[in-house]
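Changelog entry: the Chemotaxis protein CheY record was regenerated in this release. Current contents:
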Amino acid sequence: MPYQSISSLPVLLVDDEPQLLHSASLVLRASGITHVIMLDDSRAVLPLLAQQAVGVVILDLTMPYITGQELLNQIAAEHPEIAVIMMTATNDLQVAVQCMQAGACDYLLKPVDKAGLLTAVRRAFDNRVLQAELLSLKDRLLTNKPHEPQAFNQIVTQSPAMYAIFRYIEAVASSPQPVLITGETGTGKELIAHAIHQQSKRPGELVAVNVAGLDDQMFSDTLFGHAKGAFTGADRVREGLVSNAGEGTLFLDEIGDLTLASQVKLLRLLQDGTYYPLGSDRPRQNRARIVVATHCDVKHSADNGTFRKDLYFRLRTHHIQLPALRERVEDLPFLVQYFVAKAADVLHKTTPTIPPALFQWLKNYPFPGNIRELEGMVFDAVTRCQGTVLPLQSFKEASVDAGLTQEEEYLTDTQLNFPERLPTLKESEDALIAEALRRADGNQGVAAGLLGISRQALNKRLLRRE
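Regenerated structure tokens:
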């Protein structure tokens, strides 16, 4: 059963005291758990479970006809997937231990306070979702490709690392828990967020917002909205993005740049599922799934105190780390072909032929801007193309510009490790030429570019070696 379906299953309250049933159901419904079934006769429990799926059962321990402990044993035997919470007015440690050993997930003492009841029910649902997730993840990891590849049509790849991410997304997409997407700039974090939303099959839309640069008030107003008269200029009610997302997905990009004050509000939204519009003292219920992304090292930020640790651990319930383009060079031919065709279509040009030397050249380029940078390079090359073959000039210019920067960093930040006996200049030159040819797959033009010399100069050195 999908996780989203598990979270929407009803809670079954079983107690022979109608007043307790009524008060407990009010507490659950007020917290957003709207589907609650109440039974005051323990004999009706098993027939109901045989006909209807239930997420969590809350049992009174002492009831006429069939006791809560007897029901617990029968539910554990016939419906082991259902989470059972026991309630009793008797503080008996031995009975509590027996119930937990029989399969109860929690044990509450009457009178049960509101917070304790809600915490127990949410924890029970979370445990059911986690069990389903582990089973699904095990099934997904036994295959090499995603079960539903159409959800990933917008992502061009043949990389095993990306396929592993797709299978993980399939396993966790329908979970109600947040997802943290990390990766360098330009690696496709928003595409992954869209894939998660599409795979989750949630009924609402995906609402995306970049939270970088938002101060605390702007963050609150953007996400939570405001009441009329909340501040100067608030002459009408504004629904925030959380409300607009409905039961869909709220995607927060660049989460690493949030202020600490905004982090507290986001943490409350994730923990309690509630939020307050500016100027309102009445909480609202969040129904959207939260997906966040950042290019920052959030763990490092949490360790140095610029990002709340409790928020970090709450966000990384499901964590997707996207590889940089230089770590998936096998995708370069597919990405280049896709971007060339896309650029030719936009520019109303005939799709040019891609020279094989281009792939050898790109394979040795570090792509600090990742896929977004590659798309820009290809678009520029197609724009400048006057014939039928894609020119290499724009790629070489980008490589030279990046190479100058890398050379400066290399000279200042890198300490060369030499052997005890220094190699001669000839030995060093031979080693550099051999490595450049290896990286260029034997293409002398590309190897010469890597060495910063002309092809003719490389040919002369190769002839001298012979």
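The radius of gyration is 30 Å.
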